[in-house]
Amino acid sequence: MADEEPPSGWQLALDAAVVRRALLMALLVGPILILINHGDSILQGGIGPVRALKMALTMAVPYLVSTYSSVGALRRQG
């Protein structure tokens, strides 16, 4: 029986369980970060295209951190 190659980092990052966990973290942590970093602009109604892009990137940060952490843990495990 031939040894199977371990999954690549991209394969692990795209695994349904990893994506689900990362989305949950983004949905929980992202809005908190947005309020901390952009709350004053939201309250003043000053959300232009540049700020909206920054807010989207703010949501991406917890997603990427969670994915990176999960991939690292899965690689150490297997």
Structural account:
- The protein is mainly α.
- It has one domain (9-77).
- Helices cover 81% and strands 0% of the residues.
- The protein is built from three helices and no strands.
- It has helices at 9-13, 16-44, 49-77.
- α2 runs antiparallel to α3 (49-77).
- The mean pLDDT is 93.
**How much strand content do the residues show?**
under 5%
Number of self-contained structural domains: 1
Instruction: Return residue spans where pLDDT drops below 50 for at least 5 consecutive residues.
Output: none
Please trace the helix and strand order, writing H or E for each element. Answer: HHH
* Total count of strands: 0
Separate helix tally: 3
User: Kindly, what is the distance between the CA atoms of the first and last residues, rounded to a whole number of angstroms?
Assistant: 18 Å
Rg from C-alpha positions? 17 Å
Average of pLDDT: 93
Query: Main beta sheet, described?
Result: none
Coarse shape: elongated
Q: Helix/strand/pairing class, anyone?
A: mainly alpha
Share of helix, binned: over 70%
